[in-house]
Write a structure and sequence with these properties.
mainly alpha, single chain, 144 residues, 7 helices, globular
Length: 144
């Protein structure tokens, strides 16, 4: 496992545990110029999205999910483009980036995936042990 993978999984683990000081400290160690930046968070997000939508989802279901997600954010929270989030969710369910689905800058992409993963984990009711299992599974995917 690369150090960027380990750091990203630590960042996500801190977020899931609501350890905001740890999240901020660990996030500062991330390097957006690293060629592997965002991959571990992406793998975790894909796993969580597939658990939330085990049968997949139609574009309408994804759009409704994103609208509900955006409606739940606090005023002044990150302003994500709905079409961008819909593309992220669709890509997560299909295991990669769909043709023509290139994402915005890597930092915006990782931020969106972090927040969406937190939401998915909460919706799935994953406790601390299950959250660790998700992170371990993502680490194994990254090592394969």
């Amino acid at each position: 496992m690369t150090s960027v993978t380990s750091t990203e999984l630590d960042v996500l683990g801190a977020l899931l545990a609501f350890d905001f000081i740890g999240f901020a400290q660990k996030s500062a160690a991330l390097d957006p110029t690293d060629p592997h930046y965002g991959q571990a968070v992406g793998a975790s997000f894909e796993l969580a999205a597939r658990r939330r939508f085990p049968q997949g989802a139609t574009p309408q279901e994804i759009s409704g999910y994103v609208a509900d997600f955006l409606g739940s954010l606090d005023v002044g929270a990150e302003d994500f483009d709905p079409a961008f989030l819909e593309r992220l969710v669709a890509d997560g369910l299909h295991g990669g980036t769909a043709p023509g689905g290139e994402h915005l800058d890597p930092q915006t992409t990782i931020q969106a995936r972090l927040v969406l993963t937190l939401r998915l984990v909460r919706e799935l009711g994953l406790g601390p042990d299950q959250q660790r299992e998700l992170l371990v599974e993502a680490a194994h995917r990254m090592a394969a």
